[in-house]
Each structure stands twice: as C-alpha cells, then as structure tokens.
Amino acid sequence: MGQMTVRNIPDDDYRALKRVAAENNRSAEAEVRFAIAQIVRRETGSGFGSKLNAKYGGVIDDDFQFERDKTASEPMVFE
C-alpha cells in the first residue's frame, strides 16, 4: 500500500478533521483514508450503483421508469 505525508494543514481544518473523525469513531488518519476512497470511487465510477449498472445494464429498456417508495417505515425495535 502507498503512503503519503500531508504537511501544512491549516489548524482549523485539522481540528475539523479530528472532530469529524471522532463523530465517525475513526482516527484522523482513517478519516482521511475514507475521504480519499470516497472521492476516488466517485470519480472512477466504481461505487455500488456503477457496479449494478455494469452487471444489469441493458436488462431493462432505457425508458423504464420507477419511483422510490418514500413512505416512512417503522423503526427497528431491539427488545
């Protein structure tokens, strides 16, 4: 795996990164890895939707339309 050192991060940005990382129960380093992966996947189209499209694209006509059910669901109960 590659390694990278990032220098001269503004203090405000670094504090914000640490806060976001803590909210996501990750270290700052893990949060940066996560952010990089999200950006790269979005740019390369290797996300879940792109994989579905690659596998099932063409199965249904291009003019097929569907609408997502937006009704609220009941929350899970763990008792």
What does this protein look like?
The chain is mainly α and 79 residues long. It has a domain at 11-47. The chain has 3 helices and no strands. Helix 1 (11-23) crosses helix 2. The chain is flat, with a radius of gyration of 19 Å. The mean pLDDT is 85.
**SSE order, as H and E?**
HHH
Question: What is the helix tally?
Answer: 3
Largest sheet: none
Give the beta-strand count: 0
Q: Catalogue the unreliable spans.
A: none
Mean pLDDT: 85
User: What percentage of the residues does DSSP assign to strands (E)?
Assistant: under 5%
SS-derived structural category:
mainly alpha
Global shape: flat
Helix content: 40-55%
Radius of gyration: 19 Å
Distance between the termini: 43 Å
Features:
flat; 3 helices; single chain
Quick synopsis:
About 50% of the residues lie in helices and about 0% in strands. The protein contains three helices and no strands.
Break the fold down into its secondary structure elements and pairings:
Layout: H1 11-23, H2 28-44, H3 48-56
